[in-house]
Amino acid sequence: MKRNGQITAFYIETLLLIVVFLAIILVLTQVFGLARQQTAAARQLTDAVMLAGNAAEAVSISENCEELLSLLNENGNASARPDASGVTACYDDEKNPDPQGAYRVDVSWRPQKTANGTMISSVILVHHGDAEKPVYRLKTAAFREEGTP
After folding, report:
1. Secondary structure, 3-state, the chain
2. CB-count exposure of residue 112 (10 Å: 0-12, 13-18, 19+)
3. CA-closest candidate to residue 68, choices 79, 52, 82
4. In angstroms, what is the C-alpha Rg of the chain?
5. Which has the closest alpha carbon to 107: 92, 127, 93?
6. Longest Cα separation, the chain
7. What is the pTM of this model?
8. CA 17, CA 84: separation in Å to the nearest integer?
9. What is the pLDDT along the chain (149 residues), one digit of tens a residue?
10. For the chain, domain boundaries
């Protein structure tokens, strides 16, 4: 009878060990899955920051909205807004110009005359996919003195 009890105890211990291993595997699977999602979100944010920075540089050296369009337009990936208040450019996941790209960069162009020149204010929104909420938003401005190129 003692031999039968030992075998039963062995089976119960083995079953409990298997349950513990399964629980550990499930927890680790969830942890790695969440880490992968966060990595993708971080990569998306990093790409959006880089694209917004590039657009801000284009704003800072452009004299007008048409020049901004010519700086951002590569392979037909950019277009001016109908009211000439800014430019929209698209890029693929590798940040290459692509008219059908995953990233959409909306750059506003708002010049304001001052006593000494013109202040160009710009808001840059970077969207990924069809999301309405931008991945990244950047406000920037550039000043042009009167009589300077």
Report:
1. CHHHHHHHHHHHHHHHHHHHHHHHHHHHHHHHHHHHHHHHHHHHHHHHHHHHHHHHHHHHHCCCHHHHHHHHCCCCCEEECCCCCEEEEEECCCCCECCCCCEEEEEECEEEECCCEEEEEEEEEEEECCCCCCCEEEEEEEEEECCCC
2. exposed
3. 79
4. 28
5. 127
6. 105
7. 0.79
8. 68
9. 467 778 888 999 999 999 999 999 999 999 999 999 999 999 999 999 999 999 999 999 998 899 999 999 998 999 998 887 899 999 999 999 999 989 999 999 999 998 888 999 999 999 998 888 999 999 999 998 876 55
10. 2-145
Query: Which amino acid is located at 81 in the chain?
Result: R
